[in-house]
Amino acid sequence: MNPLIYNLGRCDLFAGIPVGQLEDIFSKVKHRIRRFLPGELIEEQGSSCEEMLVLLLGEVKAQMQDFSGKVVQIERIKAPSILASGFIFAKDRKLPVDIVAIDHVTILYMEKTGIISICGNNERFLVNLLGDMGNRLTTLAEKVWLLSLNTISQKLAHFLLKKASENGPEFELKITREELADAFGVARPSLSRVFGEFTSEGIIGQDGKKIRVLDEDALKRIVGEPADL
Fold it and tell me: In this protein, which residues make up the domain named Cyclic nucleotide-binding (predicted)?
């Protein structure tokens, strides 16, 4: 099987589309593939998004630089995934973030006219694309809520509650404290201090990267949510 078709089949955008249809699609749609080294800038903040980017291999990070020059990591994205699916159709197509390769990365670029053509001819592709855009709106709402939290304690409590709801009270952190601090837009020592406070107060337990939520109600009170009765 063509390696491109194999990797596309793993991506949610092409889920449910038979191999034969994928081969037919990419025999007609103009596309290109680029590879990037770790740390290399893939797309620059403010550049115009004229093609859809599909991350086939590797991991990237989206980061933003504020007016003071501070770089804040917005999210990390692992293959296979679509990058900035909605911007290609926006009136203002300027990317709000830098996209940077974390490791060796392979990206498929697809022209906007080709995307529109596929949507008109393949209902499954259209449903998948709209689903991805909807999921990203949900993620954006989550990030806006996180930004509305004023203190590091609130941000960390919200993060731990979300992880516990997804994985149960005991889970393993998949990212480093440095990466989590970047996502919160705070200094790592400050975040580590709050982790220590939560541990000493019996709210969480820590064993390396493993976290156990011991007092969910306390986390909810910190965030400002009503505790369970």
Answer: 13-118
pLDDT in tens, 119-165: 888 899 999 999 888 888 877 777 777 767 779 999 999 999 989 99
Q: What's the CA gap between 53 and 222, in Å, rounded?
A: 39
Closest CA to 74 of 83, 62, 65, 60: 62
For the stretch 76-96, pLDDT in tens is 888 888 887 778 888 888 888
Asked whether 169 and 213 are in contact (CB, 8 A), the reply is yes
221, pLDDT greater than 60: yes
Domains of the chain: 3-135 (2.60.120.10), 149-223 (1.10.10.10)
DSSP codes, 73-134: EEEEEESSEEESTTGGGSSS-B-SSEEEESSSEEEEEEEHHHHHHHHHH-HHHHHHHHHHHH
Say how many residues make up the chain: 229
Q: Token digits for 194? A: 């709050």
